[in-house]
């Protein structure tokens, strides 16, 4: 393993049950201090991969290495220590709607640390300042826009200064301006904190604008391409080109495998 590798996925095969393989011999490396994107269409196992890194599930084959240690789902102390080093931005933010912006960011600090109110206040305002929302601290979550909510979730994800930040679909449901703002923030937070960032997404261009490296996954949980964004942009592989350009026609099929329509309708064929 390269010493610059913070997280390594080493020939991982995983299924939630024996009937279906979700990840199929997946190998990836996430470099320290870099932003890596995991791209792929819906259902190809991207979120599952994040769950394996967080030790929620164990691979049936292969292993997940976190800073040189194999993630062992049976070792509770190790898992707690790893999760303490991980910040996670969930799909759609998952903020506490009954708490203020300030209290949402303060929440992990109150849960995991024993800090005075004035320390909490300093950290919360610093994190909110980093996402440009210090002035919104006292608003209720119901009063903020979708783009602001994502930034608040980002401030909360970095409240404990994690070494690794995992973003699950950070651009989902955002308008183009909020997408750009969020992308720049992810890059900036990565660079100012020195964290290692992983983003799972199907928004190719947003990811390419800020990622140092990207993996492309396809249905069946396989990695079909990897490289720097500029390398992937120049790929001549038809699957890669179709995904990157969002073209409807190509080797990636729109339809989930099904018998002929006529047969399903009971029509003569
Ligand atoms: N807890 C679970 N139990 C059983 N099957 C699951 C579970 N979670 C996800 N799956 C299945 O695993 C497959 C991969 O899901 P996953 O969420 O990892 O994909 P994804 O690439 O993140 O997709 P999306 O972008 O739509 O979230 C899907 O077919 C999903 O139905």
Automatic annotation (TrEMBL):
DNA repair among keywords: no
CDD domains, A to Z: ABC_Org_Solvent_Resistant
Keywords: ATP-binding, Cell membrane, Membrane, Nucleotide-binding, Transport
GO molecular function: ATP binding; ATP hydrolysis activity
Transmembrane region(s): none
Domain ABC transporter: 7-244
Domain of life: Bacteria
PANTHER family from the UniProt entry: INTERMEMBRANE PHOSPHOLIPID TRANSPORT SYSTEM ATP-BINDING PROTEIN MLAF (PTHR43023:SF6), PROTEIN TRIGALACTOSYLDIACYLGLYCEROL 3, CHLOROPLASTIC (PTHR43023)
Name of the protein described by the UniProt record: ABC transporter ATP-binding protein
Protein's organism: Scleromatobacter humisilvae
